[in-house]
Structures are given as structure tokens and as C-alpha cells.
Amino acid sequence: SEEAMAIIQKVAKYVGRQVGPGNLLLDGRLPDGSRVNATIPPVSPNGPTMTIRKQMSDPLTIIDLMKFGTVSPRLAALFWMFGDGMGASPCNIIVAGGTGSGKTTTLNVISAFIPSKDRLITIEDVTEVQLIHEHHVQLETFNSTKPEEPEVDMDALLKNTLRMRPDRIIVGEVRGPEAKTLFTAMNTGHDGCFGTVHANTAQETVSRLINPPMEVPPIMMNALHLIVMQSRITVGGKQMRTITEVSELAGLEGDKPRLNTLFKWNGQTNKLEETGVPSKLREKISKAAGVTPRQFDEMAQNRQKILESMVQRGITDINQVSTVIQNYYAKM
Q: Which residues form a coiled coil (predicted)?
């Protein structure tokens, strides 16, 4: 126990934090990007604990998810279409799921479709989003352990971000007052905002957003376009992380947001299947880009072929995948 405390104290000092009677929890980031968490008595009565979550040196890409079967080629192409909005109307997207379900991985993957010319600002408690992006500014909350040092929370960072002329905003985890600030931004012209929320279904995601402590007014929910549900499920006796639902926000029924489910997990076939419900985002993006829905479909098919070609050629490295995507934009 004493040896464990000594290690925790050393790690706390290394990450610029303090652990002791007045601060029983440690949450920080190591230089290699790994997250470190520690607890000491009395919050962990059986003794001090420390957990290190290593960050992947080679982040997963959309091509990896296609090879794993997590994302179909069709859905991958739609993520690309929705993520950049044909350069005219990028969608606001929330990736939701439980702890350890793979939300951040999916957020990373969708964020890779952001054009490199866009000024992108990420806001997180501890840096986890890994992007290859020329104009990427990373902001991280600051939990002070000294009275003279002011704390900087997610909401303060988000409000400051709105003064930094962002083209895109990514919030690592939306869970408090920053939700209302984010939705205010979405409702005042900041398109293409992404974030994650802890929830188990798309409907629960909506419920969590409009109720305390987030309290987003239902009328503002129209600014959210897409909810991607990530889950940890058991298939054939093995646990896997996969997307289990993709739903659009389709207006209000009374004062409650209505969902339009495009993809749903089928427990009998163990596959994410398209529901056949017409996509309202297809119409929205087509109109903003000045093309017909048929032209939208043709572009989606073209992008699907590009993604499938990378799968066939074994291109999974994040730098190479990013280069292919950005070269596509350069030729548009």
C-alpha cells in the first residue's frame, strides 16, 4: 500500500497534479497520450488503485471498421457524406454509448472526413481524439489543486472556442452545462459539430440531452442531425464493439424530438441493417449543395468505391487514409 501510494504520488507530480487528503482522485494524461486514473483511501477503502489506459499509437480508421464489419461500405460512405455535407451543409453528430463501447474511436473515424482547410477545435477533459489535421487546435480542461489557480471546465472552454473562429467544434464528452452552449452554437450557424454522450439508445440520448444536468431546450434539438449508437455486445460468446443504431432527428412531435432510424442492429443476423426509411438528411444536404437527391446518391456511390478500393489495397494507416480523403476534396 505504501509502495502504491509512492508510485501514485510520483505519477501525480509527473502530470502536474496533487493527491492527498484534500484531493482523493487523480485523473491525468501521460506524455505518450495514455490516460491515468488513481484513487486513494477513503474513496477506495481497500487501498490505493491506479489504472492506465494506453492510447493507440496507430488509431483505427474507417477502413479498419469496414474490415472488422463494424461499418458497411454503404454506411461508411454516408458518414462521409454527412460529415462533410458536400461542402455545403455538414451535419451535427452525436456518438452515444456506454463506457468502453468505442464512442471515441467512432468519433475519430467520422472526424477524419472533415476537410483539412477547416479550422477544427477539440475540447476534452483528457485528450483522446486523435486526428491528422492541419488546422487542429486541442483544448483540455484544467482541474486546479491550488486555491490561487482557477479551474477551467468544459463550458468555459466551449464559450472561449466560439471566440476562436472555429469551422468545426468537437466536444469529447458532453455531460453538463456545456451541452446547452454547444446546442446554442449549432443553432447559430456552427454546422458540423461533433460530440459524444453516455447513453444506451438513441431515444435515451435525446432524453439525457433535454433533462438535467444538460437541459437542452427541446426546440434547440432540431439542430442535431444524427445520433450514432455504439455498443458492446456479445456475438458467438465473444464481446465486440459495434454500431447498433444510426438515427436522424426528424423534427418535433409536440415538445418531444422525433427519431428517424436509418440503420438498426438485427440480433438474429448479428448485422447492422438499413431500415429502408428515407433519409431527410439526404434531402437537406442535396438542397444546400444545389444538387438533386439522385446526384447525392451518385456521389455517395463514388465515395463508397473509393473506400472499398482502400479496403482491397489494404490501406489502413491513418496518414494514408487521410491523404486519400483530402486528395478527393482537392479534385472537387
A: none
